[in-house]
Amino acid sequence: MWVVQNYPVPEKVMMRKRVPIPAEWRVNFLLNQYSLSRRLGYLLSCVVLVLLPVFTIFDATLVGYSNEESVWKHIVLRLPTAILAIIFLVLYHNKTQGYWAYPLLLALNLSLVGMVAAMFALHYTEQGGHLLYITQGLTLAIIAVATATVYGVRDLAIIYGLPFLAVVALLAYTGSTLPDNPIHLIFIPAAMGIGAVIATMLHQEHQRTFMASQQLEYNALTDALTGLPNRRSMQTQLQAEWSHAKRNEQCFAVLMADLDRFKAVNDQHGHEVGDEVLTILASRFTTSLRGGDRVARWGGEEFLLLIPNATPESALAVAEKVRRSVAEPAFATSAGSLAITLSLGVALYREVESIDEVISRADKALYRAKLEGRNRAVLADG
Asked: Can you state the angle between helices 101-126 and 153-174, rounded to 10 degrees?
């Protein structure tokens, strides 16, 4: 099963239909598209710079140029594509980051099709005897660039559309008529159709690959029952907050929270009801915490809350708010309404401490909260 915007999607549906990218993954998807643009642009640039001289020599040998003007005309037609390929490779090897890769790849694809389309128009208006050869070259270029698109048909609308409109306008302006054997011209729209299919399939495959990667990462960092971050995810967040606090001489708080008498819930009502309690608890955590605060399932019925930029007063205020949100109202479960309470231990980071030491003090404060009667928040010593 796939989880998209908190709804499970069967894998066979994912394979058959285009599933929208969830909002929380769109930034990562955009970065993934930039990375894909860099890779595709690099490969296309290498191919262009290797094959362009080869085809130039082949073209000169097969077609032949009637005069020096024709030679320069064909060189000028190839020059923009070669320049764009060189620029792409320079930026790629300089490891330049940013949005540049996608528009440059689009321009490279457009210049490649535009180059061959211009050669086609040139031979068409001159009614040369090598129109079939140029038509085949245009057909191959049309199909080839479809494999180097990032957004599928959306890209092809530009890559195919602009050269096609330019060629039609030029032929109409010059008053060119159909050649004696126009049947091979059908190859061009057929190639566009094939290219559109290829580009669409590749774009959908890119999306599926991205979704699969994100889903694996999501599963690795998320508790399957509650949907909260798991211990591994929280350890990463704790490390980042600890580094930030040390660097900026700030403070953060760790809250260890544990359900009171949760074993009795499981023993009396079964583990299914216990799972319902944990799920409801997770929902109350997320609705009662502030925007920058984070919570994770630490293990069993124990949860860890991370409060950035905390003071003893603000950390205890958050702990009290969470405790009250759990205590009332009662939890509506399949076994009826259950009165559930929570005990919390609160510890603030001290400059000389490690993360484990802060957690250890929060744990000890939680133990004190249990000993003092449960359903309370206790601030750690010191």
From this structure: 30
